Amino acid sequence: MTSFLFISAIISGLVLLIWGADKFIDGAAGIASNLGVAPLIVGLTIVGFGTSAPEMIVSAFAAFDGAPALGIGNAIGSNITNI
């Protein structure tokens, strides 16, 4: 029964991730349309910030908790993944 719950949670998480990403991109396209700018500009600024926000929050909490190495590792790992 535990493996069923585990697999269900993973599938549910993936479905919600895809749904959320779709809504995020639709919202960014709407912002670009409302502002009258190219979607590329919104993608490079707002979407870029939105996708980097979790790493920035983790790094900030790590620094406040006295573990700056965790923040540095997070930044390096994020950049390697983005490449």
Automatic annotation (TrEMBL):
<keyword id="KW-1133">Transmembrane helix</keyword>
<dbReference type="GO" id="GO:0005886">
    <property type="term" value="C:plasma membrane"/>
</dbReference>
<keyword id="KW-0472">Membrane</keyword>
<dbReference type="InterPro" id="IPR004837">
    <property type="entry name" value="NaCa_Exmemb"/>
</dbReference>
<feature type="transmembrane region" description="Helical">
    <location>
        <begin position="30"/>
        <end position="49"/>
    </location>
</feature>
<dbReference type="InterPro" id="IPR004481">
    <property type="entry name" value="K/Na/Ca-exchanger"/>
</dbReference>
<dbReference type="Pfam" id="PF01699">
    <property type="entry name" value="Na_Ca_ex"/>
</dbReference>
<dbReference type="InterPro" id="IPR044880">
    <property type="entry name" value="NCX_ion-bd_dom_sf"/>
</dbReference>
<feature type="domain" description="Sodium/calcium exchanger membrane region">
    <location>
        <begin position="8"/>
        <end position="83"/>
    </location>
</feature>
<keyword id="KW-0812">Transmembrane</keyword>
<protein>
    <submittedName>
        <fullName>Calcium/sodium antiporter</fullName>
    </submittedName>
</protein>
<dbReference type="GO" id="GO:0005262">
    <property type="term" value="F:calcium channel activity"/>
</dbReference>
<dbReference type="GO" id="GO:0006874">
    <property type="term" value="P:intracellular calcium ion homeostasis"/>
</dbReference>
<dbReference type="GO" id="GO:0008273">
    <property type="term" value="F:calcium, potassium:sodium antiporter activity"/>
</dbReference>
